[in-house]
Specification:
alpha+beta, 2 helices, about 40% helix
């Protein structure tokens, strides 16, 4: 299981595109982009959802992140 002290999360603004990436690093040398968003708030919300999934124990290993990403895609499909 990941320790909160291990995980680094941030929102990265892509200059010139107007897009924001929500990114997490689970360990040294690996970064995962959780999504690309049109605004900073939505990117931050995605990171908050990631933290909640970690707290609930839904993300215990790197392979669990892909399941989390699939659940986000389901949320996006429902929102459109």
């Amino acid at each position: 299981m990941f320790s909160p002290n291990q995980i680094i999360a941030c929102v990265v603004r892509q200059y010139g595109t107007g897009l924001y990436r929500s990114c997490v690093s689970l360990n040294k040398g690996s970064t995962i982009c959780l999504g690309i968003h049109n605004d900073e708030q939505t990117a931050s919300d995605t990171i908050n959802q990631f933290w909640e999934a970690c707290k609930k124990g839904e993300i215990k290993q790197p392979e669990d992140v892909s399941l989390f990403l699939k659940s986000l895609q389901g949320d996006l499909a429902l929102a459109t």
